[in-house]
Design brief:
The chain is 34% helix and 0% strand. By secondary structure, it is mainly alpha-helical.
Amino acid sequence: MPKVKTSRVKYPDGWELIEPILSELQAKMREAELDPHDGKRKCEALLPIFKIAHQKRLHPGYERLYCLKCVQPRDHNFQTTCVCRFPKHLREEKVIECVHYGCGGCASGD
């Protein structure tokens, strides 16, 4: 007889320390999603949502990645990644802002 798989989630050690923070950020995310965005550009309306998502990713271990759209080549010209993924010490212009979400730079080495 085959084993029956249960759908219980096994949380890692220390989960109880970050669970209240993640649930608070989830509540902020709901507020940001329901916030009216009349008269704003799409990237201006989505920026608060991505900031909250970035704060959530800080706790599971994705500290340096600001938004997933920055690393997806299909969403950019010439099938490359976003300009904010280019390391800061190799840039000619030191202040560069992501055209999608306003990220100041999320290269893994910065």
